[in-house]
């Protein structure tokens, strides 16, 4: 690594903030190691620097570990800074190394380094090298998400998920084979490797062929299904509340409007059939009415109410929706932002989510993506609460996993109608 | 903007029913919510933080619409639009007028 004298980089990616009169030894090491680095004494200048430079790596060297944590919290909470991807390294005294280790072990900060006194300058360089690699990867990932993911419609998203799971399978199979190879190598004591590999390779080939065949089969089915449902897309419910029945197969969907008389008449045969089917279902459901079901041993059990999570940052509107739902015998879980919703999601078995789209911290679309991708809640119906809709927005919502929307504000009846439709659809599926 | 009604009581009735004590409670809560949000919008405007202005306006717009404070809701939409297009002159004008809209809706609530 070449020595750089860049204590005053114009656009530093790495900032060291300290509260000591003398510049620490760490600052010298970093300035020699990295070009994009500057050090600031804690104060107005350091806050301005964090705001202006949005550092990817922040090193904090306060008098104590506690002071460093408090300073970080003040940057985030009071000054609303560091909302971009970044990592923090604690610089501490030898005495507080244990405490700094514990803080990092909890995942609060990336790592720590004992800077008073400095014994291992290469460890500091190593931490910075690792972070530089890590953050470059994060930045790329963010760009990919922002630029491309939004452009994917639901159809492609679903296919991409399938391809990802297919790739994951292959990776698992290769990993399994590796471990089998290692085990067999250990037991056979140097058996001919080709003999061991041949059956495994055949097995992988077979499985890959099967997966591919399934994938192609599903691809064909999905395409047919999409074409069929695209035709039905424009006649679901009113313009205020709508359940998006299926994902369109291209970006040229038509935004459904309230069914005009003429349009409704054109589609009457299909609607009639649907209504008949719905009536049949209602008849069947009446047999199980009065909210009771027979359990396995003939004991009468009360049907538990459906659980709905309302994710809305405005407490007044959230409370209104909650009261409406409770009035219709639903159980309501509340969340005031996306992060809280994700926490609640793991605690409750939900039947439906009503999701505000514009919220601080984590918005509705990203929360929905998190639900779908990381929590495995692919079938959980999610209806957006929104005051705005247009064709582009609907396409974006669908690609993020939203199943329908309720306009803000709608009447009580329309909200309940949208909720019931979403729950009925899941029941039928 | 003057053609838009200050307050439409039907909106809240259609949302939560004709429950007068509850309606009064929500009206009070809305007025309470207006004060810090208006301050937040003004502070964010002074700091030239358009995203924050837009977010705060969007937040209050949700309850303004739900409560039936129609003119406030329309004004907040304008504030969102101006913040988004970085039209500082119009933004300032609409923030000033939002104060009047909130004052007007308070008066309507008392009637």
Automatic annotation (TrEMBL), chain A:
Domain called Response regulatory: residue spans: 307-423
List, alphabetically, the Pfam families matched.
Response_reg (PF00072)
Q: Which InterPro entries match?
A: Bact_response_regulator (IPR050595), CheY-like_superfamily (IPR011006), Sig_transdc_resp-reg_receiver (IPR001789)
Modified residues annotated as 4-aspartylphosphate in this record: 356
Where are the coiled-coil regions?
Answer: none
> What does the UniProt keyword field contain?
Phosphoprotein
Q: Which PANTHER family does the protein's record reference?
A: RESPONSE REGULATORY DOMAIN-CONTAINING PROTEIN (PTHR44591:SF3), STRESS RESPONSE REGULATOR PROTEIN 1 (PTHR44591)
Q: What is this protein called?
A: Response regulator
This protein's species is: Catenovulum sediminis
From TrEMBL, chain B:
Q: Which SUPFAM superfamilies does this UniProt record tie to the protein?
A: Histidine-containing phosphotransfer domain, HPT domain
Report the domain of life of the source organism: Bacteria
Q: Which UniProt keywords apply?
A: Phosphoprotein, Two-component regulatory system
**HPt domain segment(s):** 19-111
Q: Which Pfam families match?
A: Hpt
Residues the record lists as Phosphohistidine modifications: 58
Tell me what this protein is called: Hpt domain-containing protein
